[in-house]
Structures are given as structure tokens and as C-alpha cells.
Write a structure and sequence with these properties.
The structure is a homotetramer. Chain A is an alpha+beta fold. In chain A, about 20% of the residues lie in helices and about 35% in strands.
């Protein structure tokens, strides 16, 4: 039998066959397979079952300096409203055949809302969050609870929560939307409902009701109705920043806390369970101290990073990019990744790791993530 | 704004735009999106986020009378060995663009092993089982433990367990292989390793070692090493049959036990946790008493059925089929399903429901499954 | 057979016997039991297995006006140091035969530390907390992490954490200690180790290291070592107070949040799991708005309350007490309880409910706790 | 300060005080504590918080040759019926001050039912099992499901299941009852209800309905109503024996399976969860091959052993006993234990370990249990 290639093994047997046996009978067999809607494993095992993950998604970078102006032009040209629902512009991974997906499981988009615009209410089984890299003035009403959106905040819209957005200011605002659209699409698990065309509320409180109930460290309100998703829907920058700063200060004082030298990180969690804030998406904020590195690691599953402030150099597979505020990049499954910063950097990361952990498919090399 | 169609909503805004605004600017915007690897949500929301699951996979049927002879011809024409690894012929759902997938998450194949043939050792992160609709004489060695395969048995090959098969008889044997290949492929989570080219053992004991340790109702051996997968790898027909018979007898005696009138069912479980026997695949055996029905139900997630004995009529969406022993059919996500039998029927079912339950995406109408 | 008394049933059979049979044979049998270390069930079932819990512990009240002066006298007369370890004075429930136990599972004590005194380091399997009803100036070093103790704060000392206390001021300080000493004693599960006679640290930071890592709503530091107990060891009054105030404000605005009308409550939780902050003890803070009530309820398991501020009337079984700041009272298992306040009241509560929930023994009538 | 004794530390400070300070003031303080229902920790810490568990329960042995005749005499002299409820004779640990408890958490008793006698229906929050060391002919009806009791069988009566027993033969039968009466009593968590005075059923099927539904390895009936306790209520000797035999055979063949050399063991589990068959009591069967040993171990928590067949020598703390069929002995918390058999031995063991594991209080030295 011929040698087994290192990369893959499919076709080996077939090749062998085509040399040593009467081809026409095999051909007829394969035709019979085709007409019976059958596929032999042995001609394609390598592609189906690679030696290690060989993601079709590619390492890819989108610059904020490209994204924001395009979103603004869309703001001028395309109204937002019922049907299209959101003025969201999705990152389409160049490896994914034109699908509007950042990775095989994750959707990432810039959403843009002009002065005094609103995006109408709907809900869906897809899980969503918003992360704000700049600006403020939009409130997202989640199940009727108005949640302010401001720089550095992470705002959740769990599975089947009605939500709508409205801009209360004279200027536009843009932010990052993350969803599990590709995963839910692939799993044929999507349900979608339109909500009322009228805003549930025009209130613009500083603190949402969910924060007033759940926004305290380790305190659980006993009287709150139990829901399957995180009851806390807003994670404010003031806390995230303080938590990251404290980790680096503790490191300087000689105490544990950081993920790696000069690398602080927090995970956003459901305060009622301690699990990931969202069931299918992990959200984290990372801070790399000046001269430090997010150590090299390979993870099964994909992630999207957005630089929040500062700058650095990202190595993703064979790609190397200088990245700065607002820039977004994708790390496909099992592709080596490192992030280095000379001057310091904060970056938001979201990934599909909870999916793999729930299914027993998670795997990683030693590293910091 | 134009009316919202019942089926979907994408494109609505765009159409509106194309009528009321200068098209060339929008066109230029869309071109800019394209060249920046961006996709607007509003032109495609309907397809991405349908009102309810609209599976591309189709209801489909494969007859045993077609499958088995083709497998036998492959047995004559195609050797089994290193590289192709297995003489397995996969059901290719006609809705899935030529992919060798029964559903978007499940692989189903007939594997055929001729007299005294062997299929070499390997292991992978994909989870697998074998179900035997007829014949015997093959042993599957799982991590070196020889497991007999006989009519009605369910045999497990969990994630990363080395396995190889060998036929000890003078005749061929065929069976159903089920795996989560499409899911793992989509998630870029597959790892694959070749094992030794030599059989780990040629022993052909009646009972495998895992059964000798774990094959007792409710008894856990304390000294057995703990593994992440089910330690019980074989579920024998004698037990399955007795369990189904007892449910129907209890029903006749006026006691609870059946899923619905005349419909008995057991789920194969990990005796150490009570969870599904496999982490990503649910396996069940159903018995429909003469004149009874598996009540109509819609489930998010897909399943594959194989009739084990008897006959009936399956309604899957707009399809209606007479089905008999060995016939395989697919129920895509959220497609209505009923199974009726005049003369009685046993059927094996496997599905991806554990995936949905782990991710909070499970949903069903009232019904029996 | 004689009538069954409502209260219990033991002895019924024996009485019957003593009337109708030769007593000496039965007497000899009972003597034989006694000498063989045997006890017949039928003579004592009522006491062993009552119709409903009949706690030996009694409703009981200890007034702060009594406790504090006695603690102060002990401060003058009794040194604190190695061996006795702590100047802690335990509530001894009058129903528990002189045992130093507030309830069958819970220990509650006033601990008093004079100016510049210290209590030496030790650790034990018993779980502990401190709650501060007044004063400040003591730091408790938990595994070397200095934790400030101030009015309204809850401080944890989980299972097998080394801890020591030292008073940095010129005045004394007293607080409530809660432990599961009776439970662990009954279960013969106690291990105890002395620590160093020297203070681990004399630092008096405003914020402990555990708070710097874990004291943010919903944020989990990724790099922190995993421990079996709550990593957050201090719950500060500023947060507790704000959370309770918000619940009552939300109630006034017409939104859910309170446990009952005018009754706000928070539970202290482990931020990594959402479970009770301590494995065997539940800690809660309750606020009763002026003119409001903690609705009547019966709970299996016992609790200790300490009024933190304000005043009210507690009904515990057949007892009625006016209670004010610092007063402590015990609610035994299944004894009816209500708390009413005309002028408003804050109260700290701790209970053994996690034990019952873990063992499937929890039960309660409808009510607010 | 005086030296700290190795055993304990209480009283040390007080002694110091009595020498160096005015005793009358301290005396008055202690009197004031007493009248205020207060107890100082420092005078009693050692007893409350020992260095390691110092169980009051003693190693103790009850011989079947004593127990059975006494139970038979009780059968002649004491009727069984409403009120006393059961003719059960409890092992009273000599260290537990006359309480009818085998250990601080476990009740163990011989129950005896004469020819054609019945024990009336009741239910309670206490968890129970029956284990049969000899005889047969009694059916226990559990929630109306008649369960045969035969030599070697373990029969469950979970929390709040109505149960009654009746002897269908002309001869008496005796068995071991195990309950968590002391634990539930200590926790004030007991509820008790009388059932109907009439037998729910006089049927005497070979197999109970729960076994017909759940008595198959790894098979879960889908249609069965979900209950909080194990749905399987009978574990038959034929399976237990086969499982133990297989472990020793596998050991002889060079495969893993035994707990230690020549020591096989199975744990009885809830087939729906894999957890212990009972929530508060662990049940196991052990087989010691001729010339083998249950290796020395210390476990936090207590256990009761009953020799089922064969003989051996048990070392429990400073006690050494020759033990044979039917003999019962107690291993208190943290007392060293070994069991040696020259000729081979089977023994049933039950313990309170699930309680400790649920509360995070479990601890053991390396060993086999």
C-alpha cells in the first residue's frame, strides 16, 4: 500500500484500487453510491477526520479605521427598521466562502445607530452581547429594562430576551455586536420573534434595574425571579478596569492573581452560577502591561479579539499584525496565537469555548488563555 | 415600508432603499463592504435568523435492500486498510449539498467487514457507536477490550478510545455506524491518531471486560479507573428487549412505564452518571405495539432512525414511507414526525439532543420523544 | 390496641403487653437487650421519629445590652492566647442541656478583642464567619491576607483557612462569630491545627487581596488559583446596604426584587459558583421597611438572627420579643417565625439550610425566607 | 502560660487565671455567663474542636448468634403493629450514652417478622434500606410495589416512600434495617406519617415493578415519572455476586477492577444519576479473597459492617474480633480499620460518607475504601 501522507489519508485506498483493480466496476459502484445518496468514507476520511483541526476560517483582521467610516456611510444611506432590524455590518471571514461569519460559530458585527434613531424590538434563540469601544448615548432596553451603553461596558442580551436600542443623543454611536448566529444556524435551532414597534420605555437611567438588583460582589437578591440566563446584563468598565489594575498591582506586590507575567484577565460571569455570562459565548477582558505578552497558546475553538486601548502586535498562525484601538481580529481553532505589547494594551475577547467544554471537546496547549 | 413576508424578512429594507434612494451610492457602499470582507445584516437577516428552524437537511429514506447489496459489492471491490481505515458507506442527506452527512450534526454509515477481514486501529475525538441490525461474528476491540457485536446490540466507542474491528467468521457482517463527524468538523475540533497495525487481541470472549465490570443494574465497581466517558461499552439486546417488553406488560397491568399508549422506549445511559451513554449523541430503542403510534412531535435537533424489526409507516414532514427492517430515515430539526405500526415495530433512534440540552438550545412540542 | 396519641406512638405496644402478657418474660427480654447493647424500636419510636420536627432547642433571646458588658468584663479578666485561642463567649441554647450551642448545628458567640490584643493563628475544618454589629479596628488575617473588620461587614473564614485577629486600635472591638461547631462535632469531622504564634502580617490595608481580585460584580479573575471555598472573604456594608435599598426602591417603582412587601433580602454567595458563601452556613441580610413584616414561615433547620439596626417584634413559636440593635435570637427547626417592624429594621441571619438542601432534607411552608 | 497538652487545649487559660488572678471576680464572671446562657470558648475548646476526630462512639461488635435468638424471643413476646410499627431491635453503641444508635448518624437494627405477620404502612423523611443475611418470604410493599426480600438482596426505602412488610410464609424472617435516624433526629428534620392499616397489595411477584423498569444495565425507561430518589429499589444478589466474582477473575487475568489485591467491591447506585443509591447512606458489598485483606484506612464518618458469608478478623481501633456470618460491627469516625480473611469473606457495609461529601467534610487516609 502506498505511503500515508503526513497531512491526511483519504484517497490512499482508492488510488491503490485504481492501479491494481478493474476500474470500471469500482466506477460503477461509485455511481451507484451517488445515485443512492451514499458516500464512501475511505475516499474522504482525511478531509472529514483530519489529524488535527484544520480550520477553513482564516486568521483575519478588520481595522477600526475601515469599519467605522463604512458604518457611518451606512448610517447615512440605509435606514434601520422592521425587517432588516439592525444596522449591523458583519465580519465575513475570508475562509468561509462568503458567509457573514467571523468564525464557524461566532458572528461579529459593528452596529451603528444615528442621532435619535432606534432599532426595533425582537427576540431570538441566538445569544448576543454588545461591547462598546467608544461613545455613549444609546440605551438598550432588555425585556423593558433600559441599559445604558458606554465605553468599556459589556451588555448582555441572552437567548429569547426582547431587546431594542435607541439613541438619545444628537450624535451617532457604534459598538461591537457578538452573537452565536453561525452555531445556531448550523444546528437549525433558531427561533425569532418580532416585538412591539413602540419602544418599551424611553427612560434613560444611569443604572439598569438588573444592575440595581445584581450589581454587587457576591450578593444575591433572594426575591428576584429565577431565569435560565444571567440576571446581570451590564458589566461596567469602572469595575473591569479596577479588577485588571488590581491584578497587576498584586503581581507587583508579589501576590498571585495574573494569568501570566504582566497579563491580567477577567471573565464575565453569571453571578447566580459563576458560569460564563452567556451559555454559548465566553467574554473576557485582557490587559497586557507594557513590555508584556499573552503567552503563545493553541485552543480548540475560535475567538474574536477587539483592541480596546493601546497597541500591540498579534501573531495568529502565519499572520502578524500591528493592532490598535478598535481593531478586530479572528483566531481560528487550533491556530497558534500570541499578543505582544510594548506600550501596554487592553483587549476584549470573545470565544465559543463554553460550547466545547459543554460537549467534552475542549482541548488546549499550555498557555495563558 | 413594504410588508413583512411571513416566511422571512431580509431584503425588505434593501428593496425599500432601492426604490426610494439613489442606488449608486448604496451600490458603492455594498462594494466597499465586499472588499473589506463585511456583510450587512439587513440584507440577509431572514436567512440567518429564520422565524423557526428551516433545516436544509431533508427528510430522507435509505432502504436496507439498497444499502446492504451496495455494501456487499464494496466488500468485493474495495479492500479495507490503513488510510481509508473503514469500509463505511455514509448516508448523504440530499439537502446537504453533497456532504456525506445524514444531518448537519450526525454521520450514519453502513460498515461492512468480509470474512476474516479486519479494520485497523485508530482513535479520534469524534464519538462513535455501532448498532447491529443483523448478523454477528465481529469483535470490536476498544482500548484492547474485545467486544462481541451481535444482532440488537449497541456498542460504544467514546471520544479518543482506540478501536479496531475483526471478523472471525467465514461470512461477512454489516452494521450501522453513528458518529458526530459533521458536528466535530463544523466545530474544527477533530483530532485523529492511527494505532498499531497489529490487532491488540484476537480473543473472542462472550462478555467484554467492561461488561464484566459494569454490566449489572445499579452496581458500580469501586476499584475501576475513572474515565470521562461511559465505562460500559456494550448494551445487549437481551436487556433491551426485556426492558421494552416489561414496559408494555406494565401498561397492560395498568401501571406507568410507557412513553405513550403502546409505545415503549429506553435510553442508553452512562451507568456512572445516568447521562446519555455518549456525550454528543443520544441513543434509544423504541417499541411500538401493534396498532400503536409514536405520537406526533417536533424537536429541535435531528435524528436518524433504523427499523430493527417489524414494519410501519413513518411521516416525516411531507414525506410518508412504508418502512421495514434495516431501513434508515432522517428527521431534520423541527420537522414534524410520527411513526405508526399496524403489526408492531422495534426501531433504534439516535439524535443530537444532548448537544442542544448542553447549550440551552433544546425545544420541543409536546409529544413522546 | 390502645389509641394512638397525637403527639407520639412509642410505648403503645409495650403498654398493651404489660396488661395482657406475662410481664416477667418481657422484662427478661428487655434485660437481655440491655446487656447486649440493643434497644427495641417499638418502645421509643415516637421520640426517635416524631410526626414532625420537635426541636429540643428552644426559641431564645440574648440581649446585646447583656452580652457586650459581659464580653468587656471578660476582656478585663481573661487573657486571650494559645490554648483557649479566642475570647469568644457562646450562646448556649437553654434547651440543649448545657451545650455551648445556639442550635443543634450552629455556634454563635461574641468575640471580644481589647486594645492592641491579638488572637493567635489556627485553622480547622469548622467553617466560620464574623459579622460586625459595631466598631472597627480589627484585622483578621486569613491565609496571610489582612481583612479589615468594620460595622456591617461579613467576613469569611472557610474550612481549613489559617486565621488570626489583631486589634490595631486603643479601644476594644467585639463582633459575632458564627460556626458549624455543633454539626462538625456531631459528625466527628473536626480537625484542628495551630498556626504560627507570630502574626503573619501587621499590614492594615483598606482592601484585602481577595477583595481586590474578587470584589467586582460578575467578574472572575482568570489567573487566581482555584480553591474549594469562596475566594471572596469580605462582603462590605456599602454594597449590602445599597442592594437592600435598591430592592425597596424598585418595589416602590413597581418592579420585582423584594422577597415580600416591604421586605428586602440578600444572600451572601461564592462568586465562583453562586452557591452559599459557606458550604454549611447560609448568611443573609434582611431589611424590613417601616410598617412591614417578614411573613410567617416554618423552615426545617435552625437559624440565628442578629438585629443590625432599628427595632421590631419577633415572634418565635410561643415567644414574643421586642428586639433592637445587637440583640440575637434563635429560631429552632420548624418553629413558626415572624418579624414585624413599625419603624424599620435591618437584621443579619445565618442558618444551616445548605446542609438540609445538600442532603435532600429541606422543607418549608410558603413564606418569605 | 502552661504547656499545651497534646490531646487538647481547653482549660489551659483558665488554669493560668486561677493561679495568677483574683479568682472571685472570674468566678463571678462565669456565674454571670451561666445565668445569661453563655459559655466561654476558652474553657472548652479542646472538647469542641479536637485536633482530630475523637468519636464518642466506640468500636463495637454484635454477634448474629446473640441477635437472632433475641429477635426470635421478641417475635414470641411482642406483637408488631400500629404505634410501635416495627419489631426492630437497634444496635446501641456503648459509647453513645444509651441512645439506640449504632453511630452518631446511623441506625442499624434487626427486624423480625413471624409467620404471616405484617408491619403496617408508614413513611418518613428518614432514609432506609433492608439487607438480607438469611431467609426469604417477606415482601416489602414500597409505594404499593411489592418487592421480594431474599438472601443477599439490598432493598431501598427512600425518604417519604410509604412502605409496609408482610411475611407470606409459615416461618419467621429477619433482616438488617439501616436508617439515618440519628442524623435526622440531630438535624430536627424528621416527618412521619401513618399509612393505611390495610396492605396495599398481597401480590408476591418474583420481580417488582421498579426492577422491571430499571433493572437493566445502563437502560433508562424514558416514560417513567421522575422522582428525587433512586427509581430502582432492589439490588439482587445474583448481580452483586456476579460483579464481585468478575472483579476477582479480572484481577487473576491481569486486568484492573479490584479495589486492592484480592479485594473486590461494588457500590449500590441510583441508575438515574450514578450517585449513591440513597442520599445520606452509602451501601457497598465487599468480597475478600482467601488470604486477602481490606487495606488499613481511616475515614471521616462512621460505618457499619455485616459479614454476609465466610469469616475473618476485623481490627477496629484497639479492638480485634473474629467475625463470621451475620456478625455486625461498627467503625467510628477516623478509627483505623482493617479486615483480614484467611478463608475468604463477603461483607456488606453501609456508611454516612455521602453526608460528608455533600458538606465538604470528607477526608480519608490512603486506603481501599
Amino acid at each position: 500500500m502506498t505511503e500515508i501522507s503526513k497531512k491526511g489519508l483519504g484517497g490512499v485506498v482508492t488510488e491503490g484500487i485504481s492501479e491494481s483493480r478493474e476500474p470500471t466496476e469500482v466506477d460503477r459502484l461509485y455511481e451507484a453510491f451517488e445515485s443512492a445518496h451514499l458516500k464512501p468514507l475511505w475516499t474522504q476520511r482525511e478531509g472529514l477526520m483530519p489529524i488535527e483541526p484544520a480550520a477553513e476560517a482564516l486568521p483575519a483582521l478588520w481595522r477600526w479605521s475601515t469599519l467605522y467610516p463604512l458604518a457611518a456611510r451606512a448610517g447615512d444611506l440605509v435606514p434601520v427598521g422592521r425587517g432588516g432590524e439592525r444596522r449591523a455590518i458583519a465580519l465575513a471571514n475570508p475562509g468561509l466562502a462568503g458567509a457573514p461569519y467571523a468564525t464557524p460559530t461566532l458572528w461579529a458585527a459593528i452596529q451603528y445607530l444615528g442621532a435619535h434613531e432606534q432599532a426595533p424590538s425582537h427576540r431570538h434563540t441566538q445569544t448576543a452581547f454588545r461591547f462598546v469601544v467608544e461613545g455613549e448615548g444609546v440605551w438598550t432596553n432588555v425585556e423593558g429594562d433600559p441599559v445604558a451603553m458606554r465605553r468599556g461596558d459589556l451588555l448582555l442580551t441572552p437567548n429569547m430576551h426582547f431587546h431594542e436600542h435607541h439613541n438619545t443623543t444628537d450624535g451617532p454611536m457604534a459598538w461591537l455586536d457578538g452573537l452565536d448566529i453561525p452555531l445556531v444556524r448550523q444546528l437549525d435551532a433558531g427561533f425569532f420573534e418580532f416585538g412591539s414597534p413602540q419602544l418599551a420605555t424611553r427612560q434613560t437611567p444611569d443604572k439598569s434595574r438588573n444592575e440595581r438588583l445584581w450589581g454587587y460582589p457576591g450578593l444575591q437578591p433572594i426575591g428576584t425571579p429565577v431565569t435560565p440566563a444571567s440576571p446581570l446584563l451590564a458589566y461596567r468598565w469602572v469595575h473591569t478596569d479596577a479588577a485588571l489594575r488590581a491584578q497587576l498591582e498584586l503581581e507587583a506586590e508579589g501576590h498571585p492573581g495574573v494569568v501570566g507575567a504582566g497579563h491580567a484577565a477577567v471573565r464575565f460571569s453569571d453571578p447566580r452560577t459563576g458560569a460564563d455570562a452567556l451559555r454559548t459565548i465566553r467574554c473576557e477582558m485582557h490587559r497586557v502591561a507594557p513590555g508584556s505578552t499573552v503567552a503563545a497558546v493553541r485552543v480548540v475553538g475560535s475567538s474574536v479579539w477587539q483592541v480596546f486601548s493601546g497597541s500591540g502586535v498579534a501573531h495568529v498562525g502565519d499572520q502578524t499584525w500591528d493592532v490598535g484601538t478598535g481593531d478586530l481580529f479572528v483566531v481560528p481553532s487550533w491556530v497558534p496565537f500570541t499578543l505582544i505589547s510594548v506600550s501596554g494594551l487592553d483587549a476584549f475577547r470573545f470565544s465559543d469555548e463554553p460550547v466545547y467544554e459543554a460537549l467534552g471537546l475542549d482541548r488546549r496547549t499550555r498557555g495563558q488563555l
